[in-house]
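All the exercises in this workshop are built on plain-text protein records. Sequence and backbone structure share a record, each on its own labelled line. The structure tokens are whole numbers drawn from a learned vocabulary of backbone shapes. The record below serves as our worked example for the rest of this section.
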Amino acid sequence: MADGQEDNPMEADTRGNKPPQMGLKLVHLDLKGAPPKLSYLAEIFPLFAHLGANGILLEYEDMFPYEGKLQVLRSPNAYSLSDIRDIITLAKVHNFEVIPLVQTFGHMEFVLKHEAFSHLREMKAFPNSLNPHKKMSMELVQSMIDQIMAVHKDLKWVHIGSDEVYYLGEGEESKQLIEQSLTDVDCLFLSHVKAVASYVITTHPSVKPIMWDDMLRNIPKDKLKESMLDQLVEPMIWDYNADLDVNKIMSQIENYQSAGFSQIWFASAFKGATGAAQSLTSINYHFANHLQWLKVAEALPRVSIQLQGIALTGWQRYDHFSVLCELLPVGIPSLAVSLQTLRNGMFSDKEEDFVKQSLGFKALRMNSLSIEDAGNFPGSDIFHRVTQVINYLKESVDKLLEENIYIKGWFSTYHRKKKFVHPIIICHFEGEVRGVHANWKVAVSELRTALERIYYPDTVEEWLEEHVNPALTR
């Protein structure tokens, strides 16, 4: 899974000291890919709490049961309003702070892909970013916010997204205004975000908007201060790299402080940040990311700014159109290590023993978890079978078809296409081929059963089509 580092876990620099206060520790549930059934959330929420989480960042996308003109946004498997209420109740049982996330500017593919809303794109050809000039764009965003807020009572925060607003300023209306020196890209961004945040605060005075910070990073701090955005939102600073630059992050934080912001959030990653098609989670990589965030938290006292919490993101797709990355159960060991590291400021033998006991592992190898030791946590059967398939299925099929001299010499792709083969040759490899195929059919059948218990049919079909069918078809 990771590189060949030693299995001995590293420790943060806070050994022997009181760990830095990280505020809320939110587990991010990215529902735009492989959304779990409610029955699995009921199994996994207690484990989240046990491991040290005290909140959930719920990124609904098309899993929210939008109504009226927005009903077209629903996935065929969208949760019902009753389901959403059950999720909220389940979260309250475990004393979780629930923060819904609704995209309001960038990453609007799930909305703008539909013909009914395609006229609200910044670029006509691309469904990712909203056109901030159209009145109906704000009406759309307000309606989405209203419907989500209507089912979420007693919220303290709502996340309004606003990351990666690609091609902003490149639409025809934007270009005309920019060419006339009436605006620029920074002003376009700030104006729309302020409008969205103002709407939230006006309609729900007790709720504070949170937003991703990447579009703010290159805006001059004087311009940011003049915008008075600090009165409206709390930025969530995100960086998922194992070698996160602490000094660079601190420089960003100081800029935000200079621009008037008094509360900030961090965002790390426990999975879904090492490749759009990644299937297995590198614990070491994400562990290193969290060690760096601890260092940032340690440095915070030099600036008068309050850390509200950290969201441990677990991306399930890079965007609405990308493939699935690591399934949630596959990332649970990484989440466990990450939460314990944040909770205690280190990951020593004590934390390792806690994680092993919590997940049912006999050993915890930070660089490669063995399929012989799959644990007994909710979804461990998926973790076990996915690890087996990714590590061995393609390899075993390749070895069989490319190294068997009879298949290579007398039963090639060309032979099979022309159906031209000496019957005696088949006797030399048929048993081995049927044996490999039968063994994998059993393993895949068990994986399918495990997936169907937790996921909806489209997720099961997609994962098997991407990772299993090509090898079995060969």
The first strand starts at residue 24 and ends at 30. Strands lie at 24-30, 55-59, 97-101, 121-123, 126-130, 157-159, 208-212, 234-238, 263-271, 306-314. The first helix runs from residue 38 to 51.
